[in-house]
Amino acid sequence: MSQIFEYLIAAALVLGGIFGLVGSFGLVKLNDPMSRLHAPTKATTLGVGGVLIASMIHAIASEGHLSWHELLITLFLFLTAPITANFIAKAHIHRHETPQSLPPAGEDGLWATHDVPASPEAAPTAPLARD
Amino acid sequence: MSLFLIAALPFIGAVFPALLIRAGRNAASLSTGAVTLLALVGLLVHAPAVLRGEVVTSRFDWLPDLGLNANFQLDGLGLLFATLILGIGLLIITYARFYLSREDPMGQFYSYLLMFQGAMVGIVLSDNILLLLIFWELTSLSSFLLIGYWKHLPEGRQGARMALTVTGAGGLSMIAGMLILGHIAGSYDLSVILQHKELIQASPLYAPALILILLGCFTKSAQFPFHFWLPHAMAAPTPVSAYLHSATMVKAGLFLMARMWPVLSGTDLWFYIVGSIGLITMVLGAVIALFKDDLKALLAFSTVSHLGLITMLLGFGTEAAAVAAVFHIINHATFKAALFMNAGIVDHETHTRDIKLLGGLRHLMPVTFTLAGIAALSMAGIPPFNGFLSKEMMLEAAAHTDWAGVAWLVPALAVFGALFSVAYSLRYIAHVFLGKKRHDYPSHPHDPGPGLWLPPAVLVTLVVLIGLFPNAIATPLVTAAATAVTGHEVHFHPALWHGLTPALYMSIVAVLGGLLLLALHRGALAVWNNLPRPEAKVIFDALVRGLTQASRGITDGLHNGSLTRYAVIFLIFTMGLGWYAFSTGAFGPETHETLPITAMPLLGWFCLVGSSLCVVAFHHNRLLSLVLIGVTGLMVSLSFSYLSAPDLALTQISVEVVTIILLLLALNFLPQETPRESSPARRIRDIAISVTAGLGMGGLIYAMMTRDFAMPSISEYHLANSYKGGGGTNVVNVILVDFRGFDTFGEITVLGIAAIIIFAITEATLGSRVRARLLNRKPWKPLAGDAHPLMMVVATRMMMPIAFMVAAYIFFRGHNLPGGGFIAGLIAAIAVIMQYMASGFGWAAERQKLPYHGIIGTGVLVAAVTGMGAWFNGLPFLTSAFGYVHLPFLEEFELATAALFDLGVFLAVWGAVLLALQSLSRYAWQPGIASEHPMDINPERDDAEIEQEGH
């Protein structure tokens, strides 16, 4: 393996490590849940991404072929991480926020999580009622 | 006709009435009659040969390893009984067509009747005692259905239960007796057993075998002290009583005693048990019968008495008595079936069976009266009817029997019984038909149509003909049957006039005494009513109640619903065994090096142990403990992966996902907190036990993994043969679908059954009052809006094809690389579950067109059919085959039947998981919960339009 690849891999790994560390540190350091939600995104995207890039370079350099697994992992991460964050945010809004404590939701009147259907019969299927 | 077919015809035919009842009652009864007639003709074709003394056999090795062969034989005894069963069956079928009312489900009746008939024919034709036992149990079951046919009557249900309990229990003891007998003789074939008289009677196991078999016979044939079930079984419709209790079911015990007569009889034990019980039953039945006012009860106890008579004759152990027994079996069947049908006619026409309300019917129902008169006189033993002939022979045999040195005892009691028999028979005529015509019958009686009186008339004709011309009609059959019973040639020449024998004097005494007793009936009844006597039903009910309570006590003591208790019993028992094995067994030296601990596994170990301990610490918060269990599961699958078990890791992770989702669903309906229930002392006890068990288990595993196994492991065989024999390099998968394919087949069947049971329980629960409670359920915390978020919905839609593709990929690579049907099934299930989670159960279920039951069934069927495919190659079930195929433009690839089998596994797992999930989801159903759109926010909506509507 040529020297340059080794440098590249090392750089990617260090980058990934730094972002992983920053993400974790942010998770501990930041005070309120909504801000905290931002920290792990660094770890999942750039942190894991750095490691994956290192792995791909390693595959090309030492085994001589392009490895697609890492791209798949990235795809799945990009798919799942936002949904997880979305759900955590929703849970937080549901349990700890009121419509008053949140910024206005614009034309819809209420944030979706607070828009509870009055009774099971008033189906959540109908387009959201306003006013 | 082959004997197989004769025995099978009624069973096959049982389908017809059940289906043809839609075409009307005539179609049902005609089809039933046709089946029976066909079997009867098939039987009678063999009659000439059998009467010549030949034995017809059909043999088929069914389960030779168990000694269970489907061997049938037809000898004289079998012919006699089979003719009675099918012949009287035919008459009963005709009679029942006109007897049952429009409200009675006639198709069911005929189906049950045919099943019963088949079971009876099976008993009398079996040449293998294990086969005989199967038919024996079938008669108990089918007679249960027949006796309880009028389900709406409590007496019917109770009578059916009692009959099943008594005859079923007897059947169980008979199984034991027959197994002992087969063990002594070294074969379960009757024809072999019958040749080993000396061997069997000399065996120390003779007494237990005899007693156990006799228990079966006595319960079936209603012998004292088991006679009580028969009168209670009279709650059945009359055709059933006439069939079961005159000619067939109760005669099964007699048949067996006659069948076993050559090997079991002749000893003192046989004489004193069978002879005495028969004698007691005969006398007791006759005495009780006289004092019964219910026509059918009278006939029932008279049946008990006559069965006792035949049992006694068989018990005497002499050839003459055996011949008399065989002859009386025919005679009793003819007059008793006729009398039962007659009682049915009286009941049908007058709407009562109470003798006290009847009398003088002779004027209104002359035909019925004639038939009843002849049959009852025959039952009383009055010449010139057939009952007289066999009763004379019985008295003759009794006169020569010496009971424990007391010469007069048996003859005296026999006369006593016969006296009562005359009295109740004549009472049937005198108190029902004779006397003055009354005006207070519950109905307006008149003779019925020929459909009801012709069947008993046929039997009554036989009663007369056998009585007048016994040699011409009965001799060939009786000779053949008695020859089969005794095992050597007998000569049978009955005659109405024997000369002035002791039997004749005894008979005269009985008739005169009986007339006198009938004249004094009122006084005798008063005496009888004042006698203290045990009520059999009360004793039986108390016994059953006691047994039920005892078994409930034991069951509740062991299974009180406390999982802790089960775990404690199980752990302590296992630890005890382990300790015993450890302290008595040898302990080899350590031979394996332990691997060095590195940072990663150590970290994993901490996560695993930490999450497990956290589950213990936080188990009161159920949601939290579920999350922690999830962590444990992931760590376990990571360890599998680290320890080079990718198959296990894949299985573990998919099982983990599905389980957690199912548990989450279930948690929806459970309290969120586990209450504290155990006292500190109990908690310390539980901790001590579980820590000991855990450490013991860990220690055991450590000891095993650091040593060579004491015996060679089977893994080497699997590793060596996986590719050679199974065509796959993934040993785990080859074990599942090939080496242990039959296990897997059983497992997917069980899995499917479990899922269907979950479905059934859900169905039953939602059909009950629980449904209202579920509908009125208040959420334990306020609900959140946006139950089906857009991002989640879109992502799961995207993931679904990917997940299915992964499932397909895992499935196809399974034979050679980690994967297989099981894991693929779970992944496919997760692909669907994701849709449920995102868009709600109702929305997703509407778009899921395949019924999950069908998927499970298809899976099991595919697996079964694949397994059966091996038969066409002449190989055992589930032998797999594989080959390599080369198609142009493709690489060479392998085709294995194991993959088809795996497809069955895949489908069964997929269907089972989803059916379980679907069932659990249905509990949460509320009106309007099913969304119309995949997500709560309809992206197609037009904001401007809504705005306008709002204002």
UniProtKB/TrEMBL annotation, chain A:
Residues 98-131 are annotated as: Disordered. InterPro entries: PhaG_MnhG_YufB. It comes from the Bacteria. Pfam families: PhaG_MnhG_YufB (PF03334). The chain crosses the membrane at residues 6-31, 43-61, 67-89. Keywords: Membrane, Transmembrane, Transmembrane helix. PANTHER family: ANTIPORTER SUBUNIT MNHG2-RELATED. This is Na+/H+ antiporter subunit G.
UniProtKB/TrEMBL annotation, chain B:
It is a multi-pass membrane protein. Its main location: membrane. The chain crosses the membrane at residues 76-97, 109-125, 131-150, 162-185, 205-230, 269-291, 298-316, 322-343, 364-385, 405-430, 503-520, 563-582, 594-616, 623-643, 649-667, 687-705, 748-768, 789-812, 818-838, 850-875, 895-917. InterPro entries: CPA3_Na-H_Antiporter_A, MnhB, MrpA_C/MbhD, MrpA_C/MbhE, ND/Mrp_TM, Proton_antipo_N. Residues 792-914 form the Na+/H+ antiporter MnhB subunit-related protein domain. Keywords: Antiport, Cell membrane, Ion transport, Membrane, Transmembrane, Transmembrane helix, Transport. Residues 682-761 form the MrpA C-terminal/MbhE domain. Residues 126-409 form the NADH:quinone oxidoreductase/Mrp antiporter transmembrane domain. Residues 609-672 form the MrpA C-terminal/MbhD domain. Residues 65-110 form the NADH-Ubiquinone oxidoreductase (complex I) chain 5 N-terminal domain. It is found in: Cell membrane; Membrane. Pfam families: MbhD, MbhE, MnhB, Proton_antipo_M, Proton_antipo_N. Signal peptide: none annotated. NDH-1 shuttles electrons from NADH, via FMN and iron-sulfur (Fe-S) centers, to quinones in the respiratory chain. The immediate electron acceptor for the enzyme in this species is believed to be ubiquinone. Couples the redox reaction to proton translocation (for every two electrons transferred, four hydrogen ions are translocated across the cytoplasmic membrane), and thus conserves the redox energy in a proton gradient. This is Monovalent cation/H+ antiporter subunit A.
